[in-house]
Amino acid sequence: xxxxxxxxxxxxxxxxxxxxxxxxxxxxxxxxxxxxxxxxxxxxxxxxxxxxxxxxxxxxxxxxxxxxxxxxxxxxxxxxxxxxxxxxxxxxxxxxxxxxxxxxxxxxxxxxxxxxxxxxxxxxxxxxxxxxxxxxxxxxxxxxxxxxxxxxxxxxxxxxxxxxxxxxxxxxxxxxxxxxxxxxxxxxxxxxxxxxxxxxxxxxxxxxxxxxxxxxxxxxxxxxxxxxxxxxxxxxxxxxxxxxxxxxxxxxxxxxxxxxxxxxxxxxxxxxxxxxxxx
Length: 279
Fold this sequence. Notes:
Elements lengths: L5 E3 L3 H16 L3 H24 L2 H9 L13 H4 L2 H8 L6 E4 L3 E6 L4 E12 L3 H11 L5 H15 L8 H16 L8 E3 L6 E5 L4 E6 L2 E11 L1 E3 L7 H36 L2
Antiparallel strand pairs: 1-9, 2-3, 3-4, 4-8, 5-6, 6-7, 7-8
Helix pairs in contact: 1-7, 2-6, 5-9, 7-8
């Protein structure tokens, strides 16, 4: 018997996106990415040489103004300190008492009740050892990728995951395979495409399909997702059939994202600016 149509929070979307982004960064240390890092390092070296060549008070003042911000590795565990309940309530325009906090790969706030949903997330916080590494990570994680490239990367990540000590049974291996396949299936046909967003941190780019932001401030990088409005409606599907469930979810996901892309993008920028302003 087909399951009834139902609305659901889009929370699984940023979680899936964060998993994919983390996986792509982990698997993307190839020669092309190394080239991007070399270019970034060269740009930095060129800037240093130019500042030194000026050798005047103006050049010294400019160098002092461009202070590179450094965050310790412990910052990765401070998602809910970086994005507090008060901040979430402000950007979502809701009382703090209406929000539920979840510490999942960062810090997420969701509206507790009601037909409409409200959600804002700070996820995948990462700190690099230096500026060159931070720029390399940002460039790599916000590089446009086709659906085929993402599928290939996910296949590598899936195989690597199965080598972990805790994946010690066939059932667990099958679960890892299913999760990797699901993430690849949920990738948009156009792949992932990014656009620069000025005025947010040192660097920021939005993925135009997800409406999510990747932000770099000094040596720290993080992802932001946000949405407020009607939930995603899942069409009826045959109970107990994983293929029907996945197909129904894919159709609903594409429709919902097309309808809410601009709203998600705009609210994510608001959230990111609030986080950066309070660092």
